[in-house]
Design a protein that fits this description.
This protein is α/β, with parallel strands linked by helices. The longest helix is centred in the last third of the chain and has 44 residues. Strands 1-2-3-5-4 form a five-stranded mixed β-barrel. A five-stranded parallel beta sheet has the order 7-6-8-9-10. A three-stranded antiparallel beta sheet has the order 11-12-13, with no helix packed on it. A hairpin with a 2-residue loop joins strand 1 and strand 2. It has 13 helices and 13 strands.
Length: 410
């Protein structure tokens, strides 16, 4: 009876322990997120073996733990050896061993947690953003020389806001200052800073933006290493000056900003010139301009004196008289030459007129010649054109006569 019950309860899809273990191992080891995973926790125990070091990593409250192994050939590559009671961050992959039915982390690298982890993340993000060219000097813009409107992004409760206001008022009275409040500490700070910058950009009045906060612990300044803040600064069409009160390390916001100052007051001093200094520079420029004009005037007067002395030495009056006499002589020669040419042309014209008179048809007729024309007025040029009895009109030197052809001679 029990066998029948057992047969009825066991489904045909049941698998062996090995099959189940292989399936779980496949799920773990083929998961892309588990092939390379960062895990941080406290080292609770460690066992040295010739094949490697086996240790347990648990969370700070002791609610969860995971086995880890570093093989011997990988130990020398670790930046931090696991020590019981210390916080570390490990990089590795999840592996499952069928013999024990346990999964563990095969560790490739181990780093100190806390400050070490934060430093690692900072270096990784910095390298990636630097590779994109966000920190390149050629993309940084110059600040306006005399801005009329600036914007300040900081916390309204921060001392930095008061320092900036006082500095701007002292250096450049009458400047329009737009305030875009933001949280500059805590988990909500990155998004708050991004939105504050976006408000200024949408407003479109500011010519430059100051992003600032006072000094503080490294943890308090983490928001200025946030990728969202860095990209908001990089994409802003308005130049941004950072004035973050720390000098030990530059934040990523400092690196991507168009100009970086180490304090809010220094940022305000960079943004606007000091009006008193402008007055002094203006007076200095006026004095320099006057001096330059006087020097040019003196140089011109000296040049005029040199030319005057040179003119006196050249005795231009005598030279002008000589040139005038030469011109008069050339004028007389031109008149005489023109008259001769005119006389020659007149004589030639009279000769041509006489020749024309001699060759005129009327003059030829006056010498005893005659012209025979037919009744239609055409001139008879050959006897072969005539017939007996044809009437012709003969033009003489004086008058005309009408004749009839009675004989044609060769």
């Amino acid at each position: 009876m029990s066998d029948l019950i057992a047969d009825a309860l066991i489904p045909e899809t049941a698998i062996s322990v090995a099959g189940l273990t292989d399936y779980i191992r496949f799920l773990l080891e083929q998961d892309d997120q588990l092939r390379q995973v960062w895990v941080f926790g406290e080292v609770s125990s460690i066992n040295r073996h010739r094949s490697g070091r086996f240790f347990t990593l648990q969370d700070s409250e002791g609610k969860a733990a995971i086995s880890c192994v570093v093989w011997t050939n990988q130990i020398d590559r670790l930046a931090k050896l696991p020590v019981p009671g210390e916080q570390i961050v490990v990089l590795g992959s999840i592996r499952l061993y069928p013999q024990r039915g346990q999964y563990q982390i095969t560790v490739w690298q181990a780093l100190p947690a806390g400050v070490g982890l934060r430093s690692l993340r900072y270096r990784q993000l910095r390298s990636r953003l630097e590779a994109e060219g966000l920190f390149a000097p050629e993309r940084k813009r110059s600040l306006p020389t005399h801005p009329q409107t600036i914007a300040v992004v900081t916390s309204p409760q921060a001392a930095a806001w008061g320092d900036i206001q006082r500095t701007l008022k002292q250096r450049y009275p009458g400047l329009q200052v737009l305030f875009s409040p933001a949280q500059v500490q805590g988990e909500q700070a990155p998004l708050s800073i991004v939105r504050a910058i976006e408000r200024v950009v949408r407003d479109a009045r500011a010519e430059v933006i100051i992003l600032s906060r006072g000094g503080g612990a490294v943890e308090d300044l983490e928001c200025f290493n946030d990728e969202r803040v860095v990209r908001a600064i990089a994409t802003s069409p308005i130049p941004i000056v950072t004035g973050i009160g720390h000098q030990r390390d530059e934040s990523l916001a400092d690196l991507v900003a168009d100009v970086c100052a180490h304090t809010p007051t220094a940022a305000a001093e960079l943004v606007v010139p000091e009006l008193a200094e402008l007055y002094i520079e203006h007076r200095q420029r006026i004095a320099a301009l006057r001096e330059a004009v006087n020097q040019q005037k003196q140089a011109a007067e000296g040049k005029i004196e040199q030319l005057r002395s040179r003119l006196l030495r050249l005795r231009l009056n005598q030279q002008v008289e000589r040139e005038k006499e030469a011109i008069d002589l050339l004028r007389q020669q031109l008149i005489q030459s023109t008259r001769r040419r005119l006389e020659q042309a007149t004589q030639h014209c009279n000769l041509l007129r006489q020749k024309l008179a001699t060759l005129a048809p009327q003059a030829v007729l006056q010498r005893g010649y005659a012209v025979a024309r037919e009744e239609d007025g055409s001139i008879v040029r050959s006897s072969t054109e005539l017939a007996l009895g044809k009437e012709l009109l003969i033009q003489l030197g004086q008058g005309r006569v009408k004749v009839k052809v009675i004989e044609i001679l060769d």
